[in-house]
Write a structure and sequence with these properties.
mainly alpha, 40% helix, 107 residues, globular, 2 strands
């Protein structure tokens, strides 16, 4: 079981660099919050694979590219594959709710 004290320590710049970058981004955000001269609330939201309408006229990267590759059969995952799929519109609503809530949770 994982909780807010756990971090992804297995990803590296040589293996799963995208996941490594997500961890490093969040760590930097928390450090900036600690060093801030004003006290402010912050929550970290992780949407995993975000899917939904693209704002780009020719989307090709990110989750759209991942989903296109997945559906075209490029990835050969077994039947026990588990991914967290998140609708981009739902994730946007979550951001708004987090900003409107009096007490936000850190991690």
């Amino acid at each position: 079981i994982f909780d807010e004290n756990d971090w992804n320590e297995r990803s590296t710049i040589h293996s799963n660099v995208y996941f490594k970058s997500k961890v490093e981004e969040e760590k930097v955000a928390w450090e900036l919050k600690k060093k801030a001269t004003k006290n402010w609330e912050m929550s970290a939201l992780l949407g995993s694979v975000l899917l939904g309408p693209s704002k780009h006229p020719r989307p090709s990267k990110g989750s759209y590219g991942y989903m296109t590759a997945f559906l075209s059969g490029i990835f050969k995952y077994g039947p026990n594959m588990i991914l967290g799929w998140t609708d981009v519109n739902d994730f946007a609503r979550l951001h708004v709710l987090a900003m409107q809530h009096e007490k936000v949770f850190e991690r």
